[in-house]
Amino acid sequence: MLVDLRSDVLTKATPEMKEAMMSASMGDDVFRDDPTTELLQKKVAEITGKDMALFVVSGTMANQLAIASLTHPHDEVILDVKSHIFQFEQGAPAVISGVQLRPEPFIEALPDEQMLEYAIRFPDVHHPISRMLCLEVTHNYNGGMIPDFEKLRDVCQKARDRGLKIHIDGARIWNAVVASGTPITEYACLCDSMMFCLSKGLGTPIGSILAGNEDTIERARYLRKGIGGGWRQPGMLAAAAVYALDHNIDRLAEDHRRAQMLAEAVNRHPDLEIVGRVDTNMVFFRPKKGDLETYSNKLTARGILHDWQHFKAIRLVTYLGINDAMIEYCIEEIQTIPLF
Ligand SMILES: Cc1ncc(COP(=O)(O)O)c(C=O)c1O
Q: Out of 73, 122, 213, 219, which residue is the most buried by the measure of CB atoms under 10 Å away?
């Protein structure tokens, strides 16, 4: 059996989603002529409680537009050293926005008070200007961890009091919403901008969305065109996104249940250990002894595809399209694969 647990971006549109896509409008979105895209953006603004939303091609584009819209050249953006924006977006804020990133070793996805105080610079002719704090929910590199909500609220309040703009990279925020029961509006009201991906757990072929106030989103719409992100006829993709929001959120609980099944199998193995916490749809683990690459090769040989190089641990991700039989197979293999 082949079980591809490399990432939740591997979701495929279901027949029902494809049907919704086939009946989508075909207007030009640069002219703002596409009713399905307008409907999607209005729907996301309502769901999040933000003024407006902007449909974009990827999570990376949404993050980069948020930074570009909320900063100026010479600004500094505080973020976790393990954040997607710092680790996996090619240093793009330096190129697109002319800003400097200030990575700090956040604890369980959040800066503590001292760390934040230390990171915020006092005004001085030598310094960049501390302008923005970026947070990640769920936190990919921390195994899909949901940051503690009270602490998150506290950090956002402190950052706001110090005049920082706040962006939440919520690529998988719906996983946090479903797993914790905290409504998305509770997250959204903490920040100036929030993005989430439609192409991950929600199961669409392409797309992410950025939500914020009118000025931020109009600025992002302007800047999106300049980086080549103006859509011509995105109606079919917007229709997939509307379908996903209506049908694919609650089912994320299934992905979380399956991740727990995998985590329990790892925990039962005397020579394997979970890395971090399994809060949502990811399981990070590694052999207690022996070589990670060798173990990774063995998993691959048994048909369990995974990521390991980026995170220095085996990462398994559950998503729409992974069923119980596949998980049972993985559990069996994890129990029996020799480590050496
Ligand atoms: C936390 C986080 N933010 C942003 C992204 C970027 O999304 P995309 O691959 O659509 O650019 C990802 C992708 O895995 C992610 O995990």
A: 219
User: Cα(231) to centroid of ligand 1, in Å?
Assistant: 20
Verify whether ligand 1 is closer than 6 Å to residue 59 (CB atom): yes
* Whether the Cβ atoms of residue 201 and residue 320 lie closer than 8 Å to each other: yes
For residue 290, report the distance from its CA to the centre of ligand 1, in Å: 31
CA distance 36 to 13: 18
User: Whose Cα sits closest to atom 4 in ligand 1?
Assistant: 59
Atom 16 of ligand 1, nearest CA residue: 140
- CA 63 to ligand 1 center in whole angstroms: 9
pLDDT in tens, 196-224: 999 999 999 999 999 999 999 999 999 99
140 lines ligand 1 (CB under 6 A): yes
Domains for the chain: give ranges and CATH numbers. Answer: 3-8+251-336 (3.90.1150.10), 13-247 (3.40.640.10)
The band of 338, judged by pLDDT with boundaries at 50, 70 and 90, is confident
Q: How far apart are CA 117 and CA 131, in angstroms?
A: 13
Cβ of 70 closer than 6 Å to ligand 1, yes or no, is no
